[in-house]
Amino acid sequence: RELLTGDALWALSVAVAVFLLLVDLMHRRQRWAARYPPGPLPLPGLGNLLQIDFQNMPSSFQKVLNVVPVLLRIPGLPGRVFPAQKAFMAMVDELLEEHRMTWDPAQPPRDLPDAFLVEVEKAKGNPESSFNDENLRVMVLDLFTAGMVTTSTTMAWAPLLMILHPDVQRHVQQEIDEVIGQVRQPEMGDQARMPFTMAVIHEVQRFGDIIPLGMPHMTSCDVEVQGFFIPKGTTLITNLSSVLKDETVWEKPLRFLDAQGHFVKREAFMPFSAGRRVCLGEPLARMELFLFFTCLLQRFSFSVPPGQARPSDRGVFGTIVTPSPYQLCAEPR
Ligand code: HEM
Ligand SMILES: *[C@@H]1O[C@H](CO)[C@@H](O)[C@H](O)[C@H]1NC(C)=O
């Protein structure tokens, strides 16, 4: 028996998210082996870096910099005040340097940085273009930061809800055993035959409601919405929570299943927001959640540690809503 605390679980989630990225990277490596020099992958420190980053709440000096950002122009200062960010960027730079070295414009692009490099080449000599090396760095940074804590926080909610609802956990495991079995690993193709598991993952995201206020947006022109006039330049905050937790929409108990047990998509399911600026990582996130969740429940049963009270299902509010710290027992099945 192993005891995992909420914090350790979080670390585990980040580690697995990194692992999935590495698997993807290694897969690419295999396909393009001839073009990559041999050598270890530069990424395993990534999980630790993000971990440190989010545990250290901003120091008072960092808060000062937030208000007076011009101080960041002082040479050498940003790296001293934000060591984790600096180390993270160093890792991104290493990754991109490797890309540049092994990039072959004659071949189809291996990934997003390759496709971006093509555009940087085309845009050479055009200072107006946004395709430049600095934007490439920042784009990679954006994708990592937007994609990791979101997915791992959702994955911290999943086992909590499973130990609070053991009957649901058993039902998922039953479906896993029937469709996948205990021998092989889950694959994306299994999803279509696992409506109950799909429904549970959707419910985890709906209930977790990890980005209750979405991302702020600003109107680029005057608009009228349902009779309300909104002038250009207005900051708009979408209350995703009001949709995800709207009791008139989410009747119990079959939120994502019809009477025949088929999975049903719901319009009010919008943890990734909606519209043109909907989360661009949604398809990747869905894959990660499905594979990680089914893998875990295929191998383990989770429960409240003996003698402990049921943990709370209330979130801790911040930029992202995380579950309150909790402990669980993970027993190999
Ligand atoms: C469970 C996981 C995730 C959740 C709940 C989530 C949620 C969101 C939300 C609510 C937004 C704001 C959309 C808006 O502006 O209205 C967003 C934007 C974004 N997300 Fe995600 N996300 C997740 C995973 C990912 C992943 C894995 C990636 C990248 C690999 C990613 C990349 C992005 C990016 C780049 C944006 C900005 C898109 C834009 O402004 O056009 N996200 N996400
Ligand atoms: C978002 O909507 C919910 C439910 O309608 C409400 O309780 C909450 O106060 C709203 N949040 C904000 C910041 O207005």
From TrEMBL:
This is Uncharacterized protein. GO terms for molecular function: heme binding; iron ion binding; oxidoreductase activity, acting on paired donors, with incorporation or reduction of molecular oxygen, reduced flavin or flavoprotein as one donor, and incorporation of one atom of oxygen. It comes from the Eukaryota. It is found in: Endoplasmic reticulum membrane; Microsome membrane. Keywords: Endoplasmic reticulum, Heme, Iron, Membrane, Metal-binding, Microsome, Monooxygenase, Oxidoreductase, Transmembrane, Transmembrane helix. Heme binds at residue 279. The chain crosses the membrane at residues 6-26. Its cofactor is heme. Belongs to the cytochrome P450 family. One of its GO terms (biological process) is arachidonate metabolic process. It is a peripheral membrane protein. GO terms for cellular component: endoplasmic reticulum membrane. Its main location: endoplasmic reticulum. InterPro entries: Cyt_P450 (IPR001128), Cyt_P450_CS (IPR017972), Cyt_P450_E_grp-I (IPR002401), Cyt_P450_sf (IPR036396), Cytochrome_P450_fam2 (IPR050182). The keyword Oxidoreductase applies. Pfam families: p450.
